[in-house]
Every structure is written in C-alpha cells, then in structure tokens.
Design brief:
561 residues; alpha+beta; nine-stranded mixed beta sheet; three-stranded antiparallel beta sheet; 15 helices; HetReg/Transcr_Mod; Heterokaryon incompatibility protein-domain-containing protein; HET
C-alpha cells in the first residue's frame, strides 16, 4: 500500500453520487513530470441518461501547474451549460458554466508493486489548490505517461488517484459506484504494456487473422452444395446460437449469413489435417477447410510469440479487471509506445481461430515454434481463458440478459487473483444483480480481516435467502485451504469449484440439530462421478438460521434420489 502524503490533496465529495475525475496535463516534452488535477463530477447528472440535448461541447482554457516559475495554460474539451434559460442564446454574451457531469475515460490497469513508487504532481482542485508530489506505482506512472497528449488535457478516472485510499468511508461509498464509473465512461482504456516489438507484432497479427478469415469465408461461400441459414443476433432470449457479430466481427447491423456444409462430418474430420499444417505439414491441399490455408501466419512466426506474451500479462488475472472489462461500453487495449487495438478486434481474432482454425487457440498458445508445450504458453492459454470469461460477462451485459446474484458471482471470480483477499468479495458487488444490498457491509479498516469479511458476507447471504447456495460452496478444498477462524459453513472464495450444472464438488457440511448438538457430517457426492441427474443428492431445508456468530443451524432433510 502507498501512503497518502501530507498535506492531503483530497477534498470531501459534494454528494453520494460524486466521483473525482483526474485532469491529466499535456506534456511539452517526453521527460516533463506528470501533472494532474482532481475535479468532482456527479454521475447522476450524466447527460447521456436524459432525453434532453447534450450540453455545449467546446474547448476551455485550463490553468495548470506552475513549472519553472510559469503556470502552464492548456485547453481541454469540456461540456458547458447555459446559466439562463434563453432560446436566443449568444455564445459571446451569455454566461456559461461547467456541466456537473464531464465525459471521461476510465483507466483499467494492474496496480503493480507499491514498494518502489514513482511520483506525479497532484493538485486537489482550483488554482490555489494543494499540489503534492504523490506516489504511484511504476505501472500506473507508465500508463499515465502513455496517455498524455501534446497541447491538450484529458479527463481520466484512475482508482488509485481518484479515490482517497486513506479514507475508508470514501472507499466504501466509491466501491458501490464502481459499476457506474466504468459503465458511464465514454471509453475504457486497458493498459497492457508490451515491448515495442511485441506491440507491433500483436497489431500486425490481429488484422492478419481477420484477413485470413475474410479469404476463408470468400472461398467457402463459393463452394458448391452449400445452403444458407440466418444466424440470430446475439442476446436472443430464445437461446439461439450467438452470431459472429457478438464476437467482434464486422458484420454489425444485418443478420449474418453463413454457409452450412452438407457434409458436416467431413469438416470435423479435417481438424487433424489443419493441425498438421499449422505445425509442420505444409500440404495446403489438406488445410483448405481451415484458416491455416488462407494466409494465417505459421506457428513458428514470432507474431505468435508476442501473442502469447500479450495474454500472459497479469492484467487478465486480476479480480477488479473482471468488473472493469465487463462494464465497459467501449474498451481499447493500450500496448504502450502509442499502440492501441480494440478489444473487439482482439477477441474477434480469438473467436476466428476458435471456430475456423484447425489447430485452435490452445495449440497456438501452448506451443513454441517446434510444437513443444511451454510454460509461457500455458500461462498465456490460462490468460486467454480468463479473457474469454470476461468477454462473455460483457456480452451478457450488452445483451441485457438477467445478471447473476452475488452468491453466483463469487463462483465466477474464483480463478481471478486479488492482493487483498477481501477484494474477492468486494470486486463482485458491482457485477452482482443484488450487489447494492451488500454495499453497506464493505469495510476496509485495517482490523477488518478477510476472515471477518468472508463470515459477514456469508451470513448476509444466508439472511438474504441464499443459505442453500452458501452451504453448497462451503468446505471446498478441505482444512488446508481454510483460514484459522473461518467456520466450516463459510465458502473459501479462492477455492470455490462448481461444475456446469451448478453443483459443488465433494465436501462436507457440519450441521447442528435442533438440540444444538453436533451430528455426523453429511458427505456430498462428487458430481463428476454421477451418471444421471437423478443421482444428485437432494437437500430440502425447512429453515436455516444462526445459533450465534459462528454456528449455523439447519433444519431439514438430506435424501438421495
């Protein structure tokens, strides 16, 4: 944790729906110190939420930091509103003021190691505000450096700077707004820094995959014996197949037509031929049913090495990134060195390989140029899987599908990492449909351990009627994975495992009888060993409650069908 310097640059926020926005000053030279300013805006005043016209957008003059005895003056695009209700508005004579909501870009990034910080100039607001040399991690410093513009300021939301990390009450209130912060941002920029060579390679590989896909479809459409079907748009509530457009492919507004081959078995049987072509067998006659035959870079290309390094980034592993990625209306990857690429372009390229490549994503991720499994490849493939899960959550939000409750979202975030174990719960609140019910339970005080957090939220879930789900998620991983002081009925967030049907893996739950005496633990069957759904144990509860803070009382029956 990086300590907030004294005097603090932070001022109290004016309303419960207010957030701080960071105004990043332009740079006159690359080595100029990063300078920024805090300014409050109100999320409830977002003009995009109302049917009335947007405020007047125009550049305004901003008086920035004093450097070498001279105050920097620059322009920043701003939303202005008219003070007087005048249909004959005159820009030269009528008074204007800043709109209470200003459009901004939200930064999504990995904090990095706080042990060796860099510093930025941070002004608490106004010409006479307090300016402090504020410590930030090196990764954030690099991100701000890459986002600076020449001659023009920009508005950003950056959690490490826009939330007073020393004010635990402010952190609690701001966490409840995180979903809105990223949803109402004009754009989310995901900072995934690579070397200059790797960033160039990634931005070369992605369009190359798309070009291969275009040639693949052009050839496939000319094949004889194909008939066409219309694929339903993404988000169809009837459960139809998700269209190509939902994975970032360019056919945006019209239903997608695709060729359905008469001999589907032949396409399936050709998978092995595509694999051979990708890893050494260059017989193109065997690969015409896959992208490998249409200009997809060969597996030994250095482009795939950079691709693996991209997905090996810790960015895809962090628990807070799941919310930031999911809620973004538009997300762009910033690879450093002035290189940007859209998330739709990246995930669309992955989808093309997944659907139409003979070797699939796993092989291009896991193998080096000789086709041998590598540690970096395994890490990259896991990163890709986590990216897929984030993208799937984002598609669900975009399609307007019902969101999952907190009890279920705790399972969704089980594979993601958190420096603070409490964030395994807190980071899920903004994604959960019922997250607002738990906002008051967020506590960041030092004495609030993650064990206390897990117990408190498990208890709240039981009280909200999710006791059965809590029991299903409890005890997984055994005593070795359970922290001291954590009751057996409280889920261990880092060890949750659940199959596709929503059933837990093997474990035991301790039950208390109505006489308050411990009874024998009730074993639960591992669903992987079940042959039919009728074999799954059925737990019928008449009531779940508490005897005290750490003993759960369950009345009911456990039967096996």
């Amino acid at each position: 944790k990086i300590a907030t310097p004294t005097p603090s640059p932070y001022n109290p926020l004016p309303s419960p729906t207010s957030i701080q926005i960071l105004i990043l000053e332009p740079n006159s030279s690359p080595d100029e110190e990063i300078a920024c300013h805090l300014a409050p805006i109100d999320l409830d005043a977002d003009h995009a939420l109302f049917s009335s016209p947007r405020p007047l957008e125009c550049p305004v003059k901003f008086y920035g930091s004093v450097i070498a005895g001279r105050r920097k003056v620059f322009q920043i695009s701003s939303d202005l509103c008219i003070l007087e209700d005048d249909d004959d508005f005159d820009l030269l004579t009528d008074s204007l003021r800043l709109h209470p909501f200003q459009r901004y870009t939200a930064l999504s990034y990995v904090w990095g190691d706080p042990a060796d910080p860099c510093h930025v100039l941070l002004n608490g607001g106004g010409v006479d505000g307090t300016t402090t040399r504020f410590p930030v991690t090196r990764n954030l410093h690099q991100a701000l450096w890459s986002l600076r513009r020449l001659g023009e300021g920009i508005r950003l939301w950056v959690d490490a700077l826009c939330i007073n990390q020393a004010d635990y009450e402010e952190k609690r209130v701001q966490i409840a707004l995180m979903r809105r912060v990223y949803r109402q941002a004009e754009e989310v920029v995901a900072f995934v820094p690579l070397t200059a060579e790797d960033s160039d390679n990634v931005t070369e590989l992605v369009p190359s995959i798309w070009d291969s896909r275009a040639l693949f479809f052009e050839t496939r459409d000319r094949r004889e014996g194909g008939e066409r079907e219309v694929v339903q748009e993404a988000g169809d509530a009837r459960g139809s197949e998700v269209s190509l457009t939902s994975w970032g492919f360019p056919e945006a507004s019209e239903p997608v037509e695709r060729v359905v081959w008469e001999k589907d078995d032949a396409a399936a049987d050709s998978k092995a031929m595509g694999f051979k072509y990708a890893f050494g067998d260059k017989n193109k006659n065997d690969s015409t049913l896959h992208l490998e035959g249409y200009g997809l870079p060969p597996a030994e290309s250095p482009l795939w090495v950079s691709w693996r390094r991209f997905f090996s980034s810790p960015y895809f592993w962090r628990i807070w990134i799941l919310q930031e990625f999911t809620m973004a209306k538009t997300l762009t990857f910033n690879l450093g060195h002035g290189t940007m690429i859209t998330s739709e372009g990246v995930m669309g390229a992955c989808a093309a390989i997944k659907k139409y490549s003979g070797a699939k994503n796993a092989e291009y991720m896991r193998h080096d140029a000789d086709g041998v499994a590598s540690d970096e490849g395994r890490l990259a493939f896991t990163g890709l899987q986590l990216a897929w899960s984030m993208f799937a959550e984002r598609l669900s939000v975009e399609a307007g599908l019902p969101q999952k409750g907190l009890a279920t979202m705790l399972h969704t975030g089980r594979h993601f990492l958190a420096t603070d174990p409490r964030d395994k719960v807190y980071a899920m609140l903004g994604l959960a449909e019922d997250g607002g019910l738990f906002a008051e339970a967020v506590e960041y005080e030092p004495e609030e351990t993650h064990v206390k957090t897990f117990i408190r939220f498990a208890r709240l879930l039981v009280e909200q009627g999710h006791g059965f789900q809590v029991l299903l998620q409890a005890g997984i991983g055994g005593s070795q994975a359970r922290d001291e002081g954590l009751p057996s009925w409280v889920p261990v967030s880092s060890c949750l495992q659940m199959d596709g049907a929503g059933h837990q893996s093997a474990g035991k739950v301790k039950l208390i009888s109505s006489e308050q005496n411990w009874i024998d633990p009730v074993p639960r069957t591992n669903p992987a060993s079940l042959t039919t759904t009728n074999d799954i144990p059925n737990i019928q509860t008449s009531s779940i409650g508490f005897l005290d803070n750490d003993k759960l009382l369950l009345r009911g029956t456990v039967t096996t069908r």
